[in-house]
Amino acid sequence: xxxxxxxxxxxxxxxxxxxxxxxxxxxxxxxxxxxxxxxxxxxxxxxxxxxxxxxxxxxxxxxxxxxxxxxxxxxxxxxxxxxxxxxxxxxxxxxxxxxxxxxxxxxxxxxxxxxxxxxxxxxxxxxxxxxxxxxxxxxxxxxxxxxxxxxxxxxxxxxxxxxxxxxxxxxxxxxxxxxxxxxxxxxxxxxxxxxxxxxxxxxxxxxxxxxxxxxxxxxxxxxxxxxxxxxxxxxxxxxxxxxxxxxxxxxxxxxxxxxxxxxxxxxxxxxxxxxxxxxxxxxxxxxxxxxxxxxxxxxxxxxxxxxxxxxxxxxxx
Length: 317
Description:
Elements: E1 2-5, E2 14-17, E3 28-37, H1 39-46, E4 63-67, E5 73-77, E6 89-92, E7 96-97, H2 104-125, E8 132-136, H3 141-152, E9 157-162, H4 165-169, E10 176-180, H5 185-198, E11 203-206, H6 210-220, E12 232-236, H7 249-254, E13 257-261, H8 269-284, E14 292-296, H9 300-305, E15 312-316
Parallel strand pairs: 8-9, 8-11, 9-10, 11-12, 12-13, 14-15
Antiparallel strand pairs: 1-2, 3-4, 3-6, 3-15, 4-5, 5-7
Helix pairs in contact: 2-3, 2-8, 5-6
């Protein structure tokens, strides 16, 4: 079969012949319809993610829309090394049928970035109203969808924080505060503090970590000895701005805040599977809009190098 083949951590995948995966107990063969090149797919393939085993060659890709043997279009994933979803054929243990009217390309491009915020927001809402949601990294694809998801799930207000001025402006609308980040840490802390002085968040979705996260921590830190009547859930999802961030001890003692992560390993797989058809329906209905660019599998090298901000790259046969 033809597949995107990555031979080392710093190589560029090439469309080459690769052995076809075998069907096995609990797995079935499917053919590619569309697969997204998500940041997490890149990180796993290149060894930069905790889910990587650091062995090459391999086929990148973590999820896809594929066609089963009986012709059904399904959203699928969970291939086994060295196989991924950027291939003509994949062997997977699951497949959720696409709803009527769903565009396979939009599903392939939107499910991974969309679920990254949908899952923690649904979990948070189970314990009460969302209130105010702060999205750190709102100008990326996942952050943009997070703003849409928060409002759809009933957030009273969303504070969208991002570095790309044009992309940030596109998020303007009712019940939203836009905060642009700069290269000045003190200025960033002040801008975020001004926003949360009006709308103190109950949930923070962080797609970037690093220094921007530290700016949010500083802005959230309270002074005084009175009891904090808020309850902030800080959810770390991505690390595009840095793998580490310093959490001030004062923040943890002065503020009613819980810091946790959301990702493969820390998320309940059963809950993920439960929400997959729910979120696919949102894409099918047009409630979620995902900017996408497509490349054929034969041009996967160009697709891999297309890192244009604000859109998701999707590979088709």
